[in-house]
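Following up on my earlier thread - several people asked me to post the actual chain instead of describing it. Fair enough. Here it is, all 208 residues.
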Amino acid sequence: MSQFIESIKVEDQEVFLLEFHQKRINQTFSHFGKEGSIDLKKIYEHLEHDEDGLFKLRLVYDLDKKLRTQMIPYAIPEIADFQLVENNSYDYSFKFEDRKELDKMKMKAKAEEIIIVKNNHITDTSFSNLLFLKGKDWFTPSTYLLNGVQRQNLLKQKKIKETEITLQNIKQFSHFQLINALNDFDDMFVYPIDRIINLPDNEEYLDI
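Reply from S.P.:
Thanks for posting it. Predicted structure:
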């Protein structure tokens, strides 16, 4: 049976974006024709987590409601370089635990992290959604692989806008940053667009 994963931010004993995580789990059960769901609030309360600091609550579950949890200390990674990698068939519309295809793409790449290109459109990295800066405004690709909880939260708060980002217009943006449940919208972790080693016009573009 397929297993799914949620990675939830817990900082100083406070849990973040729980309503978005709960909604995603509920939608997963519903999509696969299963009644009921898992109650994240109860799970967190039963953990009796009493440590300060930043943690990732990692929850792996299946559609029979079998689950396991881990509370892992977390530090936001700083990444040296990125590579555009084309994969027109990859589907990650649900947060499956199985990441073999993602791992395979990363192993072939010449950079530390990958940005997946699907049908000419920018999607996500191997572990996050993306934001791109144009002028003073931040945009997220409308062609995401996974509609992440932080992405949904920032769109709801109108802090970011959604737009089509392609190989043709990516160089119109000056900077980018990575967002997910553990990585907030944060000006401290912003990368210049040329941190992507194979932007269009470069010789090694998509050559892996």
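The CA atoms of residues 13 and 203 lie 48 Å apart. That should answer part of your original question.
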